[in-house]
Amino acid sequence: MRGFRLPSWAIGILGVIGIIILWWIISIVMMPDDGKYTPVPSPFAVVSTIITSGPGFTPAFLVTLQEAGIGFLWGNLIALVLSGFVLVVPRAEGVLNQIAVITYCVPIVVVGQIAIIILGGSKAPGLPSTTAIFLAALSVFFTTVVGTLLGLKAADRASLDVVHVYGGSKFTQLRKVRIVAALPNILSALQIAVPAAFLGAILGEYFGKTDRGVGPALIGSQISLQSDRVWSLFVLCALVSIVGYAIVGLIGRLIAPWSVARRRTA
To answer: Contact at 8 Å (CB) between 115 and 207?
Structure first.
């Protein structure tokens, strides 16, 4: 007899409820006697701030989403092109792996300081921060490179031999066999890259000389000791990342439905 197992959506709901209860308990424990300022506001206070101040956060999130979107496109595009180039020129794989590891291991705080010196902030008022775009692109590079290379190498050997027997080149193998086989891995990497790009854009706004976006909004709330606004922005950032992650996952299911079946049987 198989044991009872909750569906994944039920486990997710229970996890969220557990986090909210723990958050509420911590807020009560850390509540000061004077009741004026608390570093951990209650979930009810944060929800109230989101309802009342949420519309005011919209311009900041639109700026950060624009920066994250541009960085997401450029970072993933470069990673996909270089990964495909490795399959055509195998000797380049070592160099690409080293570059990917360096981008992942070097602290983003250090990279951000160098980027602001080289790139600067926004080139003109109203334009997105170049530092935020760069850090968003950098944040997705490693994940996409690793996922794409693993997927491209997982192609069926027999299918590759058929293309080779019929005179197909390595580029033909890449186009007709490897990309199809690697699509589930690529889509999974792109799904993970969504919150990474959003976080990279926020960090870029912290380092960049910009007065627009979620980063400056967080800094302003911290300086004025508005913990409710800080936590509200944190919750909204988490929701935006989750929604973006879910949207890319849904697109992946539509484009490569066989990957869902593969995960279930794994």
So the answer is: yes
AA letter at 102: I
What superfamily does domain 61-265 belong to in CATH? MetI-like (1.10.3720.10)
pTM recorded for the entire structure: 0.83
* Contact (Cβ atoms closer than 8 angstroms) between residue 232 and residue 61: no
What sections of the chain are H helices per DSSP?
A: 8-29, 43-88, 93-105, 108-118, 130-153, 157-165, 170-173, 179-207, 214-223, 227-255, 258-265
Number of alpha carbons in the 13 Å side-chain half-sphere of residue 110: 6
pLDDT in tens, the chain (266 residues): 455 677 777 777 888 888 888 888 888 877 765 556 678 888 888 888 888 887 888 888 999 999 999 999 999 999 999 888 887 787 888 888 888 888 888 888 778 777 777 776 555 556 788 888 999 999 999 999 988 888 877 777 777 777 777 777 777 777 777 777 778 888 889 999 999 999 999 988 887 767 788 888 888 888 888 888 889 999 999 999 999 999 998 888 888 776 554 554 44
Task: Report the alpha-carbon distance of residue 157 to residue 214 in Å, rounded.
Answer: 48
Cα-Cα-Cα-Cα torsion 78, 83, 85, 86, nearest 10 degrees, comes to 140
The token pair that represents 186 in the structure block: 């690529």
Q: 232, 251, 242: which is closest to 198 by C-alpha?
A: 242
